[in-house]
Predict the 3D structure of the following.
Amino acid sequence: MKRVVYPFAVTLVVVVALASVAAAQEPWQVPRTADGHPDLQGVWANNTATPMQRPAAFEGKDALTDEELALFRARAGELRENEQAGNLLGDLLIQQVLEDPNFREFDAGTGNYNSFWLVERELDHRTSLVVDPPTGRIPPITEAARERRRSLPRPTGGRADSHERRSLLDRCISYGVPNLLAGYNAYFQIVQAADHVAVYQELIHDARVIPIDGRPHLDDSVRQLHGDSRGRWEGDSLVVETTNYSARGAYRGATQNVRVVERFTRVADETIEYEVTFDDSDTWGQPWALMIPLSRSEESIFEYACHEGNYAMEGILAGARVEEAAATQR
């Protein structure tokens, strides 16, 4: 049988092949919005298992070998199959992988739901999220900070006397901004406009609408739970500076004068490098910074109706009243 060759088809195949090769050789380009700024929009996840601070077992070592990483991933997989979810949150997962003697269970008294409900964590070669100082450790607190903690008034009465005696987290009012806890509702939605950027975090639905039009911060006398955020573009990085925290909103024991600088830089289609710097000379001897790789997620942000459905608070207070009544009958 005579074979027929179609020149057009051959040409088309060659053109497509050459185009594919050319596309593969082109450097990645940052996607941009209509106003020319990098497009950061979408839902981004922080499910890293890299510890906040470098564990003592990794002292002087900023990266794992391929063999160490494979071993730790295997161990993390075993823990996921057998541990309750609470013990896999934040740094608790890597503490167990390393058999850290300082590991303490998340909720040893009442237990927790199982890991079926918990997202898988991502391990990479880094040994700490903290990138400055180079030790990978948060700087020690100052003597002024120690004195401040020692002088805090001791609460009178019990923590179950009233809902107001519980923390903002217990009451599902706020987890704080920025949220650095990985693996638990650690999803962020970013929406951009010409003069504002909105950052919405799933955990306790904390949201910020951040002006990027050059307006100054609020007067120093105005203090807010999530501080006062102002944004600007520095090259292809969105820089958000937050000041004016209230005493209840300050992070990790910092004063309300802490200054937090966040940098969002899209480095790939699927990744934003999220850098956060904390500066409070009344708490730490020097500023310190961390970097979290945020991964693009195709999932939606879900309503976090924790405060509205906080049955645990009712149970805590009701249980305390039962205990008090029982004590009077002894």
Q: What stands out?
A: The longest helix spans residues 7-25. Residues 1-6, 9-16 have pLDDT under 50 and may be disordered. The CA atoms of residues 132 and 288 lie 5 Å apart.
